[in-house]
Amino acid sequence: MKSTPASLLLGLLLLAGPVFAAEGPSVITGPVVLPPEIAALPIEVATLTAPPHVPPPITRKSAARVVINLEVRETVGTLSDGVEYTFWTYGGSVPGSFIRIREGDVVEFHLNNHPSSKVPHNIDLHAVTGAGGGAASTFTAPGHSSQFTFQALNPGLYVYHCATAPVPMHIGNGMYGLILVEPKNGLPPVDREYYVMQGEFYTTGRFGEEGLQSFDMAKAIDERPPYIVFNGAVGALVGDRALTAKVGETVRIYFGVGGPNVVSSFHVIGEIFDRVYTEAGMGPPNSHVQTTLVPSGGATIVEMKMDVPGTYILVDHSLTRAFNKGALGMLKVDGPANRVIYSGKEIDAVYLGAQAEAGSDSAKREAELRGRIAAETKANPVIAGLTKEIQFEKGKQVYMGLCFACHQADGKGLPGAFPPLAAADYMLADRDRSVRVVLKGLSGPITVNGVTINSVMPPQEAVLTDAQVADVLTYVFNAWGNKGDAFSAAQVKAIRNETR
Ligand SMILES: [Cu+2]
Predict the structure, then answer these.
(1) How far is the CA of 73 from the centre of ligand 1 (A)?
(2) Is 175 exposed, middle or buried (0-12, 13-18, 19+ CB in 10 A)?
(3) Could you tell me the distance, in angstroms and rounded to a whole number, from the CA of residue 336 to the centre of ligand 1?
(4) Which of 32-46, 256-270, 293-307, 406-420 has the weakest average pLDDT?
(5) Spacing, Cα 246 to ligand 1 middle (Å)
């Protein structure tokens, strides 16, 4: 990712075309001539914050002309311990800078693409009324700056994201954030506000694989992300980076999902949301909510009064995402306990006393005995023989359904076309090679019983399971007068996983 070849850059530029074709070429119109009453509004430069922080509430009682300067930077950062990633960011963080404006504001938006960027970017703000949400007007090459103006007609909490092709890749590299358009009368005051976004990362390596990872388009298309995280990294909100609050305070979280694909079942373990602005809409909030569903490219606002101290865990309640892919954060609440609301562990008593212990002892003993049966069975020649016979019969079924067409039912093959398997010195000489032949196929000249054949055997690895390969080889190594041990599925598996 560090050195994007020029051809890739060109490809991206070409791909970017169709996104804007719908709107025609982006004509540069020059600054808009504002009507006098808007031109007269006070001008202010918006304060932007990096997550998990939120700019202070807006105290103005009327509209303003707000100038927003947002810089795009492509920077290498930490995705997890030892795992690096080239993030594409708005303002240097994932999610991008939090933007806070007021309903009715007229925004002069500047998108600045840092000269060190490798590709062009733009921005689609869901708070914008107008085609593309600003995307066509902000398509910006590295080292350039674009400007456009919009009026915030609708209050609410909105996602913004890059819409440059390939869009899922730009979003998948971290190009998303939130813009809050406060309603004219503001939101009710709270004690603390935080900014959290969920997004997934499609790395070439598996979860935890160290080193600089790059974006894997195939995994993105299949929607199989190794990482699903809060605020751009595993552990971005844990330990000394956890969110904090005090007992008695009300906490508001502006929560969004950048995606590009995966939705979130947002939940805080140990709390009930007192209020949820469902889908971040500004209608009356819902109350007493345990888990709220947040769509990709959507947001929510949750509020909770912290009644008792403790560490509350933020999760996507699709829980393997939280415990195996990173979608987990913490809110640490300090203050006096209230043991009526939550007592803590009151008593640790032995349940059912000695009887229960005897029960668990006997379960252990049972497992031990079952283990011994398995070991004895394996060692017992009669049982081993029967097992091999079963494999032989199962293998014969595979053979007669698949291999016989070429190697013939009697295993003698067809002279000049298909080699024999009956009494075949080539096959019998190397058991591992035979596994390889069946899994990966074989081509080129080979000599079987003194006769050279030069043909192609198709690979069967996509067709047969490890057990089926073990069975069919057990069959061919013991049919037609051949003599050999049984093959095991484990042996086949090991060879299947060989790197070629
Ligand atoms: Cu972009």
Answers:
(1) 10
(2) buried
(3) 47
(4) 406-420
(5) 39
Q: Measured in angstroms, how far is the CA atom of residue 234 from the centroid of ligand 1? A: 22
Distance CA 379, CA 381 (A): 6
pLDDT digits (tens, 9 = 90+) for 222-234: 999 999 999 999 9
- Gap from CA of 386 to ligand 1 centroid (Å): 63
Which residues are registered as beta bridge partners of 194? 253
Instruction: For 189-209, write each residue's pLDDT tens digit.
Output: 999 999 999 999 999 999 989
Adjacent-strand bridge partners of 87: 75
Ligand 1 centroid – CA 299 distance (Å): 20
Residue 211 φ/ψ region, left for φ over 0, alpha for ψ in the -120 to 50 degree band, beta for the rest: left
CA distance 314 to 302: 12
What is the CA(233)–ligand 1 centre distance, in A? 19
Distance 178 CA to ligand 1 centre (A): 16
**What is the tens place of the pLDDT at every residue in 393-426?**
989 988 988 888 889 989 999 888 899 999 999 9
